[in-house]
Amino acid sequence: MKMKTLAVMALAGSMTAGTAMADLVIPDLSYRTGPYAAGGVPFSDGYQDYFALLNARDGGIGGEPVRVIECETAYNTERGVECYEATKGEGALIYQPLSTGITYQLIPRTTADNIPLHTMGYGRTSAANGEVFNWVFNYPANYWDAASVAVNYLLDENGGSLDGKTIALVYHNSAYGKEPIRTLEDLSALHGFTLTQLAVDHPGQEQKSQWLQIRRERPDYVLMWGWGVMNQVAVQEAANIGFPMENFIGNWWAGAEHDVTPAGMAANGYKSLNMNPITDYPVLSEIQSLVHEAGNAAGDGSNLGSVLYVRGMYAAMLAAEAIANAQDIHGVADVTPAMVRDGMEALEITNARMTELGMEGIGPEFAVTCQNHGGTGQGLVQQWNASAGVWEPLTGFISPDASVIAPLIAEDSAAFAAESGITPGCL
Amino acid sequence: MSADFLYGIEVVLNGLMAGVLYALVALGFVLIFKASGIFNFAQGVMALFAALTLVGIMEGQVPFAHLINAVFGTNIHHFGWQVPAILAIFLTVLVMIAFAWAVQHFVFRHLVGQEPIILFMATIGLAYFLEGVGDLMWGSSIRTLALGLPQGGSLWVEEMTNGLGGDDFYGFFIDKLDMVATLVALVLVAGLVAFAQYTKQGRAMRAVADDHQAALSVGISLSYIWVLVWSLAGIVALVAGVMWGAKSGVQFSLSLIALKALPVLMLGGFTSIPGAIVGGMIIGVGEKLFEYTIGAPYLGGATENWFAYMLALVFLVFRPQGLFGERIIERV
Predict the structure, then answer these.
(1) What are phi and psi of B223, to 5 degrees?
(2) Could you tell me if A69 and A117 lie in one domain?
(3) Of the candidates B11, B252, B291, which has its C-beta nearest A35's C-beta?
(4) What is the pLDDT of residue B328?
(5) Where are the transmembrane segments (chain B) (predicted)?
(6) What strand order describes the sheet that includes A248-250?
(7) How far is CA A377 from the centre of its chain?
(8) What's A65's DSSP letter?
(9) What is the pLDDT of residue B329?
(10) Residue B332 lies in a domain
(11) Are A96 and A243 within one domain?
């Protein structure tokens, strides 16, 4: 009897495992708890809802259902690594951890395990060099692109010259916050503006000193590299000292609805970069009807269409397109992580394809190559309309200054290759 | 007067008021430590929980809505009414009193006589439990605190002082919210001191703080006093949560404000209510003045966090019990 029971259990187990192996497994290293949950929740909702839409509408990708495994990191690097170790054995095809700290820990691990890592607009900037970082991708844009896009926008606002202007950088005093400094220093030398740096310690709840300094020195513009509570406090402090909001520009991690709503009307006019213009994409209606109304929403449905929801959805779309590309390249539906990497390296996102997906204009057109894992680096500027409670796109996609960014990426990636013993080349 | 000197005075004034905000958090620690010898690691989370509860009640949010919806398949989030601020504050105070009773009844009653480190670890567990309950109860999104607290710099102060230092001086910047917080803190401290000095419960609280055994021998209920003290700490947490929440919105990073209170406690002492205020102001002024004169110009800025702890350490070396703490006397 006992042996019979064990045999039945073993058979059932093998059948379950067989089913699981046939799924396309996508881990979602999310953070729905802790101090950064306000940013993590909408991103994760958008990420998961898009895969739920593909399952409901198309039966998955290429006929293979998608199985999302959510793992809570609380934006904590150690827990992020634990999540990676706990989920990679499930047949994980791609990781998008939404954390620069976790990204740095996962780069050597995913490389050793041959699993692609996609860090869209965050992580290690020089991973754009695909000949050094074979398994890491950061298309369509990275931090250094963001800094250059912001400066190019300001150049445009000032008739092509920033000579004699002063730009203050208010940044999170961490590896993330310090990322744009080198780029901005080079751009400062190139365009003749003075760069002032103001570091804000984690978590950023107290910024009085920094904003008193801004009030004293009266820079022409303030750029911000913030995340979490730092963003809300900075917007409030800027309003408190009467700094002109239209001259205050956050990066794309400082431009969500929850970054500005606590300050109320005082936040009106604040600007930020974004990777995606916020508008009524047709795909959002599909998610509403096929996912939310079917009771399969990842969250409570309240984040649909918000800045970080759209970004999460966009990240999921890029992953899904890479998987579909891998299926086409290798002629199989049940792809492996290595095949997905091939799909990512040959990915081409066109306006026609985005329109076909119900996401017309959600991102720039770009093509990934072995040499360039970073895309075009384009971003746009959006502005907060407090009375309407919406982010309004102010510009189209702005290109970064490749003549400044490319040498920096080459230098940093070469240093990484040297210290890691990597011989650059394509797989 | 030179503009630099006047800006130095501005930094001192803002440091004083920032220090009062730190002290608001530190007060909760002091109340509990003084009466029970427990270092309450959960004080920051209590501030978060109290502020979340206040906003949730004001907005008419259904507590545990996500849990209810997940279990019963419903889709409810709000009752459909808004609660006036005064009533919501009263109801939040009741919730914090209920929390104090639950903490005493379910946790500390069973730990009477245990080592301080055990009690401390219990408060660590309590902090994470309360953070989880707060998330389940009210969700993790950032809320706006609509209490009508003033925001922005005082234009009156700015205009009155504008001409003091020539063209390079733009007048003193004083945040109106900081002024309100200072007034609230002063009223709170005066109220707490009056309560401790002139009420029967306050005297009983002081008796327990002085000597548990002696207080028990004259019929004071230790359990009642602990509930009272945790309730007061809960009310102080609500005030701190409101003031900090008005700056950043009510969000889970509010629990981290406890980090700003630790150097205040080290400096002011764990057992003195005025010590928390004075300690807070010394830390506030010290860290801001250091950032203004040395940190930002020579060290790249962001020196306030570590400098506050360094300043507290220096005080600890010379006065381990803190500026206003009770003197430590060990007799063989």
Answers:
(1) -60, -45
(2) yes
(3) B252
(4) 64
(5) 12-32, 38-58, 79-102, 117-138, 179-198, 218-244, 264-286, 306-324
(6) A194-200, A166-172, A221-225, A248-250, A271-274, A380-385, A390-393
(7) 12
(8) P
(9) 67
(10) no
(11) no
Which pLDDT does position B212 carry in this prediction?
A: 80
Most B CBs within 10 A among A45, A174, A200, A205, hence the mutation to make, goes to A205
Distance from CA of B211 to the nearest CA of A (A): 39
The two three-digit tokens of residue A397, written as one number:
């996609």
What band does A175 get if pLDDT is binned at 50, 70 and 90?
confident
Region A113-131: what's the mean pLDDT? 96
| Co-location of A137 and A285 in the same domain | yes
| A255 and A244 in a common domain | yes
Q: Which helix (H) or strand (E) holds A5?
A: helix A2-22
Complex prediction ipTM: 0.90
Query: What range does the domain containing B252 cover?
Result: 3-318
Residues in B closer than 8 angstroms to A200, CB to CB, are: 302
Structure tokens at B252: 């889970």
Which residues of chain B does A206 touch, with a Cβ-Cβ cutoff of 8 Å? 18, 260, 304
C-beta atoms of B301 and A198 within 8 A:
yes
Would the pLDDT of A20 be above 70?
no
Residue A264: is it exposed, middle or buried by C-beta count within 10 angstroms (0-12/13-18/19+)? Answer: middle
Residue where the block lists tokens 């209590």: B46
Print the domain residue range for A241. 143-274
Measure Cα distances from B323 to B24, B69, B75 in Å: 17, 52, 54
Closest to B141 measured CA to CA, from B56, B81, B255, B68? B56
Q: Does B309 touch chain A (CB under 8 A)?
A: no
Q: Which of B151, B252, B253, B256 to probe the A interface (max A CBs under 10 A)?
A: B253
Q: Which of A206, A232, A292 to mutate to test the interface with B (most CBs of B within 10 A)?
A: A206
Q: Which of B321, B317, B311 is nearest to B19 (CA)?
A: B311
Taking CB atoms and an 8 Å cutoff, what residues of chain B touch A233? 247-248
Closest approach of chain A CAs to the CA of B167, in angstroms? 11
Would you say A342 and A75 are in contact if contact means Cβ atoms under 8 Å apart? Answer: no
Residue of A nearest to B73 (CA): A295
User: Token pair for residue B300?
Assistant: 């790249």
Phi/psi of residue A381, nearest 5 degrees: -110, 135
**Strands, E assignment, B58-163:** none
- The pLDDT value recorded for residue B323 is 82
Q: Which residues of chain B have pLDDT under 70?
A: 326-332
Q: Which residue has the tokens 């949730």?
A: B56
Distances (CA, A) of B206 to A18, A156, B185, B271: 68, 67, 21, 11
Whether residue B299 lies within 8 A of chain A, CB to CB, comes out as no
Alpha-carbon Rg for chain B in angstroms: 21
Q: What are A24's two structure tokens?
A: 């396309």
Amino acid at residue number A245:
M
